[in-house]
What we know:
Shape: rod-shaped
Strand content: under 5%
Structural class: mainly alpha
Helix content: over 70%
Largest sheet: none
Amino acid sequence: MPDDHDERFQHHEDILRRLTALLVEQRTFNQQVAGLLQEQREFNRQQVEINADVKTTLARIETLLTRWTRPEENGRDA
């Protein structure tokens, strides 16, 4: 009977070792994902700024095109 108990104990120890190794790997993975998430947030923040600049530039181009296609309305031909 002691052998059966020792066997079960070793089996449980083996399970605990594997679970511990798995948790260590999971923690490493989670840290990597957290780093990537932070990089993605920074990229998104920059992208929002770029998009705002592009919208402003587009509005200015549209205004210039409107003035260019209707010169009589901008006061130059008066």
